[in-house]
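Exercise: predict the fold of this chain.
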Amino acid sequence: MPTLVRDPKHYAEAGVERGMSSSAADVAGPGLAGLLSGSLGPRGALTVAAAGSAAVVVALVLSPVRRLKGLPQEHEEEQGREPEASGM
């Protein structure tokens, strides 16, 4: 969670929200897959799934994602630890 949420005060809330979204996907996913397969057929359902995966790849490529090798240096200093030297 530290790589997703900067402020440690929000870790619990972020964990709850992550769990709720995972549970919602577990419940809705199979029903949506059945609905797509029934209405579009297997080929159409796979096309929709491929389009969704392509959209995720495009979003990741276009998003300004910070590449982290562990915790950010300022976060480690806030926790009273010395920043680790990265050998990578």
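Check your answer against the key: The mean pLDDT is 78.
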